[in-house]
Design goal:
This protein is mostly beta strands and 292 residues long. It contains two helices and 24 strands.
Length: 292
């Protein structure tokens, strides 16, 4: 064998070793996860692929725990080392914290501080989550259907306004005792802040409505709803606010949606009644909602 032949033989041997054909005990083989989402159990429009995220927690591979991939289309194809995995799926654009630890992974809402009080900034959106355990094998794609469930609660509030409603231009509500985060695995809630929401008037009525998504309600805080009445023009000097305690209605509530109705009277004195739970809710068309 001449010198050139020896070089060729060595190159072939090196390629074989690099390709793990020589000894599979020292080879990292990738498996492939092929995942898609079944949103049939979700009552809202499905999130776009760019808002679907999957985080991996390996049991016996060297993939870093908390590695996250985002969908780019309806079906995700993810090639990672073969082995056992726990996966956490979530949707939306919330901040994901503690993702390096399976049990510490949580979603959080951004907050601002005003007068030493925390307020959720912006509007919280719907999100859903799922957990799954899968084992990936080399050259055997694992096809998985992800079936998420709601991870937030929806609170609907309707205010029936009576009295001197002619100059009324706006209603704004601030609710305290809102959780600012939630753990993906245990689903326990954390944090405490207030959230502000603008009411929209249903056309042709004196019904004002608002809906908001929250991670839940802090179990040790009071849930006080403060409604601020805004008047037109010169009547703005009569802007007032009243508060009502929603704690008896929302504390301990663990369903997906709760709708409350209360009466607000505008007169010499602004009065507000205790709310009642209503079984059905009708959204105001988006074209009638205020521009936020």
């Amino acid at each position: 064998m001449n010198y050139t032949d020896r070089l060729i033989s060595l190159a072939v041997l090196a390629a074989a070793l690099a390709g793990c054909d020589f000894n599979e005990d020292f080879c990292t083989r990738n498996g492939e996860l092929v995942a898609w989402c079944d949103f049939s159990g979700i009552s809202v429009p499905p999130p776009v692929p760019e808002e679907r995220h999957l985080t991996a927690y390996p049991a016996d591979t060297d993939l870093p725990a908390g590695t996250t991939v985002t969908f780019t289309q309806d079906t995700l194809r993810w090639s990672i080392p073969q082995g056992g995995y726990r996966f956490l799926f979530h949707t939306g654009n919330y901040e994901a914290a503690g993702t390096g630890d399976y049990h510490e992974a949580r979603l959080t809402a951004a907050t601002d501080t005003l007068d030493d009080k925390a307020y959720i900034s912006g509007v919280q959106r719907f999100c859903c989550t799922a957990m799954l355990n899968e084992r990936l094998e080399y050259q055997s794609p694992k096809r998985v259907r992800i079936t998420p469930s709601a991870f937030v609660q929806r609170l609907n509030i309707q205010v029936n306004v009576s009295g001197n409603t002619a100059p009324l231009s706006s209603l704004k509500g601030t609710l305290s005792g809102i959780s600012t985060g939630r753990y993906l695995v245990s689903r326990e809630r954390t944090g405490n802040a207030s959230v502000t929401s603008v009411f929209a008037r249903k056309a042709g009525t004196d019904e004002w409505k608002t809906s908001l998504y929250v991670f839940g309600f802090n179990p040790t805080a009071e849930n006080i709803l403060t409604v601020k009445v805004g008047m037109d023009g010169e009547d703005s000097v009569f802007d007032e606010q009243q508060s009502v305690d929603l704690t008896p209605y929302v504390r301990g509530f663990d369903g997906d949606e709760l709708s409350l109705e209360l009466n607000l009277h505008i007169g010499r004195e602004l009065t507000i009644d205790d709310p009642v739970v209503i079984p059905e809710w009708e959204d105001i068309p988006e074209t009638e909602l205020p521009n936020l």
